[in-house]
Amino acid sequence: MSKVFVFSLALIFSIFFGQAQPVLPGASNLPQYLPLLKGKQVAVFANQTSTLGQTHLVDTLLRKGINIKVIFGPEHGFRGTADAGEKVGNYVDEKTGIPVISLYGSKRRPSPQDLEGVDIVLFDIQDVGVRFYTFISSLEELMEGVIAAKKQLLILDRPNPNGHYVDGPVLDPAFKSFVGMQPVPVVYGMTMGEYARMLVGEKWISASSQKIYDSLLNKGKNLIKVIACKNYTHQTVYSLPVKPSPNLPTMSSIYSYPSTCFFEGTVLSEGRGTATPFQVFGHPSLSTELYSFTPKAMPGALYPKFADQTCYGWTISGSSDEVKKKIGNKIQLSFLINAYKLFPDKDHFFILPKSGEIKDAFFNKLAGNEELMLQIIAGESEESIRKSWEPMLGEFKVIRRKYLLYK
Predict the structure, then answer these.
(1) For site-directed labelling of 260, which of 91, 139, 186, 253 has its Cα 20 to 30 A away?
(2) With 50 as the cut, is the pLDDT of residue 346 above it?
(3) What pLDDT does residue 357 have?
(4) Does residue 244 lie in a domain region?
């Protein structure tokens, strides 16, 4: 058989059967965005996931002669070591000597003073595609500050590891918070670049910022530019090269997170302080015949629920393929429903604020409404709960489709 014939067969197979090409994040496309940074004063919004190969994006840009004036950091900080929810202050990065301004501390958006002298802002953060994971909120706040200052924002897009499905209750604006700012479902199936396009396209940013954005757009200047990923679709299986935060250390945790993070709003442990966060959940008062685990204080989980106490509950841990198969292309409500049914003190299953008002419970901020908690308490079936999501999910999917950059 000739080499030409073999090559032809390989080419035909590639065309018709989709031979996998390596997925490349937007950061890898240096020729597309490096010329936009040359000779400019640059601000970078980044964390430990902002890598180009094995090298941090900031280090790469510095070696390319890019003048980075300031770095902005999100939840967990620029180096990604802070505990969940821990407020991070401003400091000077030891490695580069560049000032780092926290946008997860005393403020969540850059001020005009922070952007003074900056020509262009570069955003490069790995998301996991879940509404209550705060990086999309950080992106929105950054957009507000950058647009108000009439600066250019360049988004280096990255694949969404949970981008293959859309599911969950759509947020009711009455429950808006930093763990949910827009009327999108828990799993929204979009990359950061696509999400940013939706924010301005649907006019979901503030009226003052939208007015500035639209005015400049009408004059031919688009303040938001996305550098797209290569060889990525929303069905691509993408394993993150760097853990996005301390308690999402593996792809197994990333796949289970949309279903099990709801336990943060309950008295049950969601597995922080274990080797498998968000893959185990339980409580000391549940049956001792169930799966057992003991949370421990550790970096990234300094104050886990029930530290050094044995909890009894469930595990869905396993390889990433196994966990992905267990979860499927939907949020697994059965975990929450079964845990509530078996919990002995149902009046204290959900964590309520001091006021005792159900509407102010953190669980409802995660869910984006009050309805899910009441449905669980009422003993509604998973099928009934899921059916209640359908009308708004359908409306969101129509909106989402307009802003997709990938098949």
Answers:
(1) 139
(2) yes
(3) 86
(4) no
- Judgement on whether residues 146 and 270 belong to the same structural domain of the protein: no
CATH number of the structural domain spanning residue 168: 3.40.50.12170
Q: Does pLDDT of 396 surpass 50?
A: yes
Question: Which residues span the domain enclosing 337?
Answer: 251-369
| Ranges 80-84, 194-198, 253-257: which has the least confidence | 80-84
- Shared-domain flag, residues 100 and 207: yes
Q: Output the pLDDT for position 84.
A: 59
Residue 399 placed within a domain: no
This prediction has a pTM of 0.92
Mean pLDDT of all residues belonging to the chain? 93
Please give the structure tokens belonging to residue 164. 């293959």
Could you tell me if residue 20 is inside a domain? no
Please give the average per-residue pLDDT across 184-198, as a whole number.
Answer: 98
